[in-house]
Amino acid sequence: MTDAEIICDKLGRHILIESLGVSKAALSNALTAGVFPSRWFSVVKRECEKRDIPCPDAAFSFIKPATKAAPKNTKEATP
Question: Across the 79 residues of the chain, what is the mean pLDDT of every consecutive 10-residue run?
Fold first, then answer.
C-alpha cells in the first residue's frame, strides 16, 4: 500500500475530492499512479494536519534530486 493510498483511506475519498476540487476519476488516477500530483500538496497536507494524519513527501510526485555522479577525469591520457 502506498503513502497516497494510506492518506486516502484515513481521510476518505470524499474529503479529498471536495477539498481539492477534483473528480473521482482524477483521484482514482492518482491512486493508480501511487502518488498524488505535487500541486495537491498544500491542500492534502492541510487536511492531514487537521486530523493528525502523517503526510510524507513520498506520497507526492515531487521531482527527486539528481544523484551526483562521480566526477569524470577531464585529463586525457598522455601517450
Answer: 97 98 98 98 98 97 84 61
